[in-house]
Structures are given as C-alpha cells and as structure tokens.
Write a structure and sequence with these properties.
Elements lengths: L2 E12 L11 E11 L3 E14 L13 H13 L6 E4 L1 H23 L5
Antiparallel strand pairs: 1-2, 2-3, 3-4
Length: 118
C-alpha cells in the first residue's frame, strides 16, 4: 500500500483577527499530496490548505473566514506554486524489471539452443 504524505509548499504567518478568539496570530499552510510506494513515487497536483490559530489552536474553516482573510488567502494561494506532476520509479522497480528481462532472455537462449524442448 502506498504511503500518502502532505508536503508543505508554503507557510505564512497572518496578522488577521481569529474569528474564534480575536487574536492576531494565524498560520496559513499549503500542502501538496505526494504518494510513496515500493515501486513508484508520485507527485500530484492536489494542493490543500489549512488555516490555524496559534493562540487557541483551532482550525478555521472557510465558512468562518472574513473578507480580509479571504483576500490574504487568495494572495498566498498565488504564491504557493506546487511541484509539477511527476512519477519516479524506485530502485526496486528497476531491479525487478532487469531480472524479468534477464529471465526471459535466458529462457529464449535455452529454447533456441535446444536445451529446453516443449
């Protein structure tokens, strides 16, 4: 099973008022989804965000955002540039691929040389 991680691509401290406790200590984070498997590592275009108050430790959902927070969010969203989609194969994949081709080659050699007959 592939392990999915959210990698931080942009973090910003915001001085807007928290809708819960009205302090000016917010943190906006943007994450990109990465998938790590035994054979392949994938980077996707899925970007998520999270707005947290550092004082009351609560997550602030977009329903509770003020107009100021929305403007700041749009600004930082433009600055959060994700990595391109990519697929990278691991060394286990290449070893398995090479051993498969080697076994097929040995089988063809043995069959054409007459050692193995069907």
């Amino acid at each position: 099973m592939a392990e999915i991680k959210l990698v931080v691509i942009k973090e910003a401290d915001i001085t807007n008022n928290c809708p819960e406790c009205f302090n000016q200590d917010l943190k906006l984070s943007f994450y990109q989804k990465h998938s790590y498997g035994k054979f392949v590592r994938k980077t996707t275009n899925v970007v998520t965000h999270k707005l947290t108050c550092n004082t009351c430790k609560s997550d602030i959902y977009p329903v509770n955002w003020t107009d100021d927070i929305e403007r700041i969010f749009e600004y930082y969203q433009k600055m959060a540039i994700p990595e391109k989609n990519s697929v990278k194969y691991t060394s286990v994949f290449y070893i398995l691929l090479l051993s498969t081709f080697t076994l097929i080659g040995v089988g063809i050699y043995l069959f054409t040389s007459g050692i193995i007959k069907f």
